[in-house]
């Protein structure tokens, strides 16, 4: 049984990735957006060289969140509108697996490019050298959680036609811990404080969402088809 | 006349003939220009040898502006007369323009580091060139975001036309706002105000870059046309009516 | 008064779907577009509505080309396509009201339309609560709510039950009797008498399109 | 082997669509759901597919309730609804492949399916280039690509040209001859012999739903 | 003729607003994001009381811009997918009017709430009292331009695979002048400089977009149906 599920996971992942490869430019667009949005701050605030490094952690995390937010809308809507979701719901594999595959694919297409682009922005903002490794670690812990939570939110938005619009308001607050700990960890390491606790909290959060969100996503998807 | 060469097959042949006549002179002029610029022109009395960055910086800045203008005109022609070759030329020009803009930004930054002591300042000229860079990227991104190529080219054509507003802003930003950047000394109404020992290699480079652009453009258009044909052949048989 | 097309050619993607197509519709006539799946019925209908443009050829009314005065053309047509243009949150009445008021319909024509398409009693039902056939009926109700000369219908019978099928037929008959013109793309026999048929199969072309000979 | 429902009631929005509905399908039989627009054909079919849940009643196979083992139920069914589940960027072959591989189809059944639905030659065409009828045919090809006991078809003839209509009919006949079951919601006469009809009109209820008597 | 067009404008505006009221949650998300992102920012920087007022103008404008990005994707897609756009295209009113009505409705639903929320954020950032009137003026001049440009962008991406992120990449460069002048005007007034020129430039920009974007939007809509 377990083996069969893993097979399904891989099948869907493969087809999702095939779809994504047809659209490989999309990942590039996310990175571009990330950079463009980061460029906004010096424009708006005035490029004081002393200020920029202070802003770096906050800006990187807010922009990563925003880039992800902008991409969730399209996560399930095409499947919902073209009927693929119905077919997923009635194929023998449980919807939880499909939810997990979708989140993984989203992370590969969005989260990974964001991780890769983040040092670039850190450079633009002149983040002190000591911050980079923690930056990458927090991104690696935080982006999968964002993908997971966002997937659940995207599924809830589908059902929202039936009146539960407020549900989608839940997603942002849920991602808040990631932002706060992510930015705080970078800040801490740059100021020479230990970051172990922050990272552990983020890791715990990731594990928690890994367990809970596929269930929530599947429930929301099922609900959206009723 | 235009109709005649706007036929893809004929244009393809014409492009094949023209290509060597553009590519070789381009290579030649760029080499000459580089030689004069780097070794055979006087150092600036203020800037010393760093002034030699100019021979790459200025022509690529001009090309960045020129290619965007070219793209906007092609897009407008494509939208108004619905000619696919016009869209194709805009599509072919975009990545080349992006590269020139990038070169302009990089050389400008290098120059800025020595002259102003910083890689980057947020003044009007520099910012507007950065916007141009993003407009190029946006054009390319939009073009490739559609499953249907016709949709992609028309949509990006509209963006190309709107974005053209930025070109005069870049050009005149130095006059309209107080900027750190140098105002025009070559391309202006009252004639150039730059010594001919610098002007000549600059102009040689500019002509070389232009020819280089057009050879790349033709090459890319040829490739794109072949790709289109491959796609057309691929779907030509859709019409074989199905179940009968 | 007549509506006609001359030498129309249509390109979808990179493919020439049909070419050299002529047609004429006169007051009181019903033109049925037929042909296999993929022969270009929908494409032709969208060209007639002015949504797509033919790569060659002209559409015209007795008093001038469509391209010269698209607004006049739009005043004369009504188009019911595959998509029903029904908003989920608006009620049946509100949905119809939007299109009616944009096209010169009145409250009176709206209520007549609802009645003719058997939608009375559903006026206050939100669009999301409608079944496929009810949505289609709402979409067809536009034909009555805003009166126009020319109706362009793409597979109008989809999802209709027999009663509504008959209602639609009566609607078309009434429309033609009052001098209206109708163009229908359908694979289903509508059982209307005296229709003219235009089989798109006859205008099919196999062509490589404009990129022929490149490379 | 049989599939049956007992005392099913369905609620859509706040309205009770039907109630007290029973049905049984046996191997080799074809059940046609009929009834006016809005009588609940689609709703019943979605209940049978396990997409929606009835507010009362049970669905079961000879060997147990659907609710107790939904995965087993899903292994036994194939559902073709209003939506075609065709991805624009994937080719016809790739589109079919996704669903086939999730439901145990093989490369061989895929090519048989494409052939039966007249889609050979279109294997490498992206979904976006298909006309309405071609998309529908691709959607119906799933029935052949992954073999299941029970087919649930919602208005399967929409947009099909006469040739494909016949192909579909042959498909269903073949399926029943090999002991398969078919349930079809359709307003169009499919011209299949020996079908059982279930008219949803007979189970319609006028009811205020659960809020009855409040206020 | 003119009167007829104004009537159409009002008709569409009314139905758009009615639709928007049914989906009021969507505007709530935007304002929530605006506030959350702005609140979060000090968390990333560490709330140094001296720094915050310096950041205020820039942060308010950047967040307003980014929050608006979240809303453009859904501007035309529902109409595109349910066939309403086809009907708009063949109704006798020109598409330019419809584009204008859509932009106006968008501003009422998104721009106006952002304007109302902005003093709140300014307070959080301890913007000096002298800045508020200019803040509101620039918001009043800038948000309609954002709505107009975003509408054009939303029309361009109809049918594209990637929605929100691509859209932002296209329109943010075009909106940069708003951000730059908006933030600069507030900065200037707080430092006691005159702001007339900034406001005039913003007004000019608004007028320019009022003229150009309906044409561009209509062109993009028309060709999205081809
Ligand atoms: C990244 C930074 C820079 C950018 C984006 C940039 C951009 C441009 C552009 C677009 C032009 C063409 C203007 C026209 O045709 O009127 C130009 C010309 C020029 N730039 Fe820069 N530039 C940068 C840095 C610099 C620096 C640091 C210097 C030297 C101090 C410099 C010196 C010049 C000169 C001398 C010209 C020629 C002006 C003329 O004679 O017409 N630039 N630059
Ligand atoms: N999503 C929904 N929410 C609430 N009510 C709905 C929904 N969909 C349909 N209904 C209602 O349920 C009833 C049954 O709808 P259903 O789609 O099952 O009818 P149907 O028999 O398939 O009709 P048709 O022949 O038009 O396809 C209709 O009266 C409709 O108003
Ligand atoms: N968006 C599109 N892009 C490219 N080609 C398309 C597109 N839509 C349809 N086509 C192609 O154009 C041809 C005509 O399609 P059209 O939809 O007009 O056919 P139709 O006669 O309406 O068919 P059906 O009976 O299936 O509805 C088809 O062969 C199809 O492959
Ligand atoms: Mg069709
Ligand atoms: Mg139905």
Q: Which key features would you list for this structure?
A:
heteropentamer; A: 226 residues; mainly alpha; 84% helix; 0% strand; B: 244 residues; 8 helices; binds protoporphyrin IX containing FE; binds adenosine-5'-triphosphate; binds magnesium ion
Your description of this structure?
The complex is a heteropentamer, with 2 copies of chain A (about 230 residues), 1 copy of chain B (about 240 residues) and 2 copies of chain C (about 220 residues). Chain A is mainly α. Chain A has helices at about 1-20, 25-45, 50-80, 85-90, 95-125, 130-160, 170-190, 195-225. In chain A, α3 runs antiparallel to α5, α5 crosses α6 (about 130-160) and α7 (about 170-190) runs antiparallel to α8. Chain A is elongated, with a radius of gyration of 18 Å. Chain B is an all-alpha fold and about 240 residues long. Chain B is globular, with a radius of gyration of 21 Å. The termini of chain B are far apart. Chain C has one domain: Rossmann fold. Chain C has helices at about 40-50, 70-75, 90-100, 105-115, 130-145, 160-175, and strands at about 5-10, 15-25, 30-35, 55-60, 65, 75-80, 150-155, 180-185, 195-200. In chain C, the strands form 2 sheets. A 5-stranded parallel beta sheet of chain C has the order 6-7-8-3-9, with helices on both faces. Chain C has a 4-stranded antiparallel beta sheet with strand order 2-1-4-5, with helices on one face. In chain C, α3 (about 90-100) runs parallel beside α5 (about 130-145) and α4 (about 105-115) packs across α5. The longest helix of chain C has 16 residues, at about 160-175. The model of chain C has no long low-confidence stretch (mean pLDDT about 90). The chains are: A mainly alpha (about 230), B mainly alpha (about 240), C alpha/beta (about 220). Chains in contact: A-B, A-D, A-E, B-C, B-D, B-E, C-D, C-E. The interface of B and C includes residues 150, 226 and 231 of B. The complex binds protoporphyrin IX containing FE (HEM), adenosine-5'-triphosphate (2 copies) and magnesium ion (2 copies). One adenosine-5'-triphosphate sits at the interface of chains D and C.
Q: Care to give the gist of this entry?
A:
Chain B has 244 residues and is mostly helical. In chain B, 75% of the residues lie in helices and 0% in strands. Chain B has a domain at 58-169 and 205-236.
């Amino acid at each position: 049984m377990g083996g069969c599920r893993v097979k399904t996971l891989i099948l869907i992942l493969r087809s999702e990735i095939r779809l994504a490869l047809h659209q490989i430019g999309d990942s590039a667009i996310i990175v571009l957006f990330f950079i463009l949005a980061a460029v906004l701050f010096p424009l708006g605030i005035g490029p004081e060289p002393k200020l920029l490094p202070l802003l770096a952690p906050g800006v990187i995390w807010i922009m990563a969140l925003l880039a992800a937010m902008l991409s969730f809308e399209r996560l399930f809507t095409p499947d919902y509108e073209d009927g693929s979701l119905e077919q997923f719901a009635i194929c023998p594999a449980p919807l939880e697996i499909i939810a997990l595959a979708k989140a993984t694919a989203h992370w590969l297409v969005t989260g990974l490019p964001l991780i890769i682009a983040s040092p670039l922005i850190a450079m633009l903002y002149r983040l002190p050298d000591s911050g980079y490794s923690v930056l990458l670690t927090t991104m690696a812990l935080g982006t999968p959680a964002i993908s997971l939570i966002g997937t659940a939110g995207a599924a809830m938005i589908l059902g929202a036609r039936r009146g539960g619009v407020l549900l989608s308001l839940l997603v942002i607050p849920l991602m808040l811990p990631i932002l706060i700990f992510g930015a705080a960890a970078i800040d801490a390491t740059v100021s020479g404080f230990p970051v172990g606790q922050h990272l552990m909290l983020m890791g715990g959060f990731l594990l928690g969402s890994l367990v809970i969100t596929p269930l929530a996503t599947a429930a929301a998807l099922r609900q959206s088809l009723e | 006349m235009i109709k005649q060469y706007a036929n893809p097959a004929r244009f393809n042949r014409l492009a094949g003939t023209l290509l060597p006549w553009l590519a070789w002179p381009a290579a030649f002029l760029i080499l000459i220009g580089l030689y004069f610029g780097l070794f055979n022109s006087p150092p600036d009395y203020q800037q010393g040898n760093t002034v030699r960055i100019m021979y790459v910086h200025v022509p690529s800045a001009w090309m960045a502006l020129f290619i965007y203008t070219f793209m906007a005109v092609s897009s407008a022609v494509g939208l108004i007369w619905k000619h696919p070759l016009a869209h194709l030329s805009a599509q072919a020009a975009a990545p080349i323009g992006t590269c020139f803009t990038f070169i302009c930004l990089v050389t400008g930054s290098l120059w800025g580091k020595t002259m102003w002591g910083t890689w980057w300042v947020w003044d009007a000229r520099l910012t507007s060139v950065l916007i141009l860079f993003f407009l190029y990227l946006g054009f390319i991104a939009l073009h490739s975001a559609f499953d249907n190529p016709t949709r992609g080219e028309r949509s990006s054509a509209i963006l190309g036309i709107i974005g053209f507003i930025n070109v005069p802003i870049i050009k005149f930003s130095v006059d309209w706002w107080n900027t750190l950047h140098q105002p025009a000394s070559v391309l202006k109404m009252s004639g150039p105000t730059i010594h001919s020992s610098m002007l000549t290699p600059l102009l040689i480079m500019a002509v070389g870059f232009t020819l280089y652009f057009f050879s790349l453009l033709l090459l890319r258009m040829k490739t794109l046309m072949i790709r289109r044909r491959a796609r057309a052949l691929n779907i030509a048989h859709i019409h074989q009516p199905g179940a009968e | 008064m007549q509506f006609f097309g001359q030498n129309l050619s249509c390109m979808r993607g990179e493919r020439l779907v049909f070419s050299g197509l002529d047609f004429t519709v006169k007051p009181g006539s019903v033109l049925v577009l037929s042909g296999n799946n993929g022969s270009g019925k929908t494409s032709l209908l969208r060209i007639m509505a002015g949504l797509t443009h033919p790569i060659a050829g002209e559409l015209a009314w007795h008093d001038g080309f469509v391209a010269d005065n698209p607004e006049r053309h739009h005043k004369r047509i009504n188009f019911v396509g595959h998509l029903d243009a029904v908003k989920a949150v608006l009620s049946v009445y509100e949905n119809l009201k939007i299109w009616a008021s944009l096209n010169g319909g009145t409250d009176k024509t709206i209520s007549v339309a609802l009645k003719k398409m058997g939608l009375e009693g559903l006026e206050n039902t939100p669009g999301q609560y409608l079944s496929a056939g009810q949505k289609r009926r709402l979409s067809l109700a536009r034909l009555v709510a805003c009166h126009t000369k020319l109706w362009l219908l793409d597979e109008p019978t989809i999802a209709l039950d027999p009663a509504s099928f008959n209602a639609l037929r009566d609607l078309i008959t009434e429309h033609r009797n009052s001098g209206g013109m109708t163009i229908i793309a359908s694979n289903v026999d509508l059982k209307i008498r005296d229709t003219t048929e235009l089989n798109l199969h006859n205008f099919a072309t196999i062509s490589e399109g404009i990129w022929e000979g490149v490379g």
